[in-house]
Design brief:
The chain is mainly α. The protein folds into 2 domains: 26-96, Orthogonal Bundle (434 Repressor (Amino-terminal Domain)), CATH 1.10.260; 98-127. It has 6 helices and no strands. It has helices at 30-42, 46-56, 60-67, 75-84, 86-95, 99-126. α1 (30-42) runs antiparallel to α5 (86-95) and α2 (46-56) crosses α3. Mean pLDDT is 85; it is low at 8-12.
Length: 127
């Protein structure tokens, strides 16, 4: 026996939207911001989509939609992307208005690079 029209769950016309960041000069929404971060981190080629599919174990069609800014990743896939992509992490922190954490991350990275450079200088002087 088939279901009646009343039993079906229909998608809303408007869809889900992420509130725009009032501090963002560009006014990007979540989906567009994540798409741009993915393209910066992985590139826009089909190979980039395959890399993200392997990382997240998501459906390739879904990942293509993330890159095209048609849809955004689910919470679970977003967490996986945050683990593997500095660009996505920084974008999410920016959208959340956590500029202090972005600055702290960049400062820690600069400190690590400076430490490596000092070790290289010490090695050159010792040799």
């Amino acid at each position: 026996m088939s279901r009646s029209q009343k039993d079906r769950k229909l998608r809303s016309e408007s869809g889900k939207t992420f509130p725009q960041n009032p501090q963002s000069p560009h006014g990007f929404d979540f989906v567009e911001a994540i798409a741009q971060a993915l393209r910066r981190e992985f590139g826009g080629s089909p190979a980039a989509v395959k890399v993200v599919v392997r990382l997240t174990r998501a459906n390739p069609r879904a990942v293509r939609n993330w890159f095209a800014a048609n849809n955004g990743p689910s919470g679970e896939n977003l967490v996986v992307l945050l683990r593997h992509s500095e660009e996505v992490l920084e974008t999410v922190l920016f959208l959340a208005g956590r500029h202090d954490l972005i600055t702290a991350r960049k400062l820690a990275g600069a400190r690590e690079k400076l430490k490596e450079m000092l070790e290289m200088i010490d090695d050159l002087q010792a040799g």
